[in-house]
Amino acid sequence: MFFERHEGGENAILVHLDMTDDKEREDPHEFRELARSAGISEIDFVTVSSNKPSPRYFIGQGKVEEIQQLVKLHEADVVLFNHALSPSQERNLEKEFECKVVDRTGLILDIFAQRARTFEGKLQVELAQLQHLSTRLVRGWTHLERQKGGIGLRGPGETQLETDRRLLRVRIKSITKRLDKVRKQRDQGRRYRKRAEVPLVSLVGYTNAGKSTLFNALTESDVYAQDQLFATLDPTLRRLDLPDVGESVLADTVGFIRHLPHKLVEAFRATLEETAQADLLLHVIDAHDPERLDNIKQVHDVLEEIKADEVPRLQVYNKIDLLENVEPKIQRDDQGKPVRVWVSAMQGEGLELVLQAVAELLGEDLVQGTLRLEPAQGKVRSRLYQLGAIQSEEYAETGELLLDIRLPRHDFDRISKQEGLQKSCLVER
Q: Is 211 known as a binding-site position?
């Protein structure tokens, strides 16, 4: 890896700018959760009220001096900002505080670096880190000057900064090439599922909404699930058997967050394509979170950015065990189509309703009717029984077998093609 990873544990002063513009405003509680998830020890929290950030320091001169004193008093290792800082603002603040300054993007990148477990995940995080670092390379090299001429050193020379930029470009190019290979492998997997007509259901939602807990409950898996932001980073795929639909694939993906750094969206595009290519999205929502409506909007914004906003969606309101007098249920639209399911993944309540709603949405195109088979077509009957598609059967006076069937149309079409069934054999209802 290009970076040495640390496991957090630094003492930090947290700085939050309370802006009046709703589009720019960040959540201070979420900021604290991000710091906790990174393993940071909060030693002070500073709130700054301002309508417009300062171009030089992002905050006013008075607050700079106040934080400067706090850094010396607490011997802070780092000052975290709940906002994106420009490279020049970071450098100016570090010069004043005489310690490391990390903005919101850098903090999220650090959490991702700690969470990445797979080779692909580590590559994606490193790419995002390198892209973020490339605009901040002046830091750390201010003591170096262009090499001076002399014996054995004559010529134009190259500054350490230029050398490092060149190394960064080479590394970024190498990682991008590897991720392109991963993307092609994922495309192959998706094409195989398409050919096998296995539907893909992808979990999406705001970070810490309970996606991994729901994933584990539905698939009887043991994916890492904790009460912390970005507990899941690497995507996980598991088989999921659905009534009337049969085999499908359920994908657990990284959680979204407001103002998700664009560099992360770009770096994780190969992973997020699982979401964009899904047949159905399960949008998991923390029903107990007072900010849930805003979180829903933030998820929609990210889905729009990765071109997944047109994929059919089912809302899953999770954590109803934290609410009073709320029972598991399915809410439907005017056409009777499932639009929302209320569950508690932690308590295992309402899971069968999720499966029922997903099956209804994926199995909208079902074949239901009476299939007439000749006595010699016993192989067709056997295959339909294997799929659990036969509801009942009886013999006609002519000796033909009458099967009452119900199964996904793609399964019926495949059997019809392979066994040479005629359209006249089926009377749909």
A: yes
- 237 among annotated binding-site residues: no
Domains belonging to the chain, first-starting first, are 10-101 (3.40.50.11060), 197-361 (3.40.50.300), 364-426 (3.30.70.240)
Annotated binding residue at 361?
no
Average pLDDT over residues 255-266: 68
- For 99, 188, 230, the CA distances from 143, given in Å and listed in that order, are 16, 49, 37
How many helices (DSSP H) and strands (DSSP E) are in the chain? 13, 15
Q: How does residue 146 score in pLDDT terms, banded at 50, 70 and 90?
A: very low
Q: Please tell me whether 8 is known to bind a ligand.
A: no
Mean pLDDT computed over every residue of the chain:
80
Does 402 show up as a binding residue in the annotation?
Answer: no
Is 212 annotated to bind ligand? yes
Flag whether 369 is marked binding. no
* Residue whose structure tokens are 């994929």: 311
Stretch 44-64: mean pLDDT, rounded?
Answer: 87
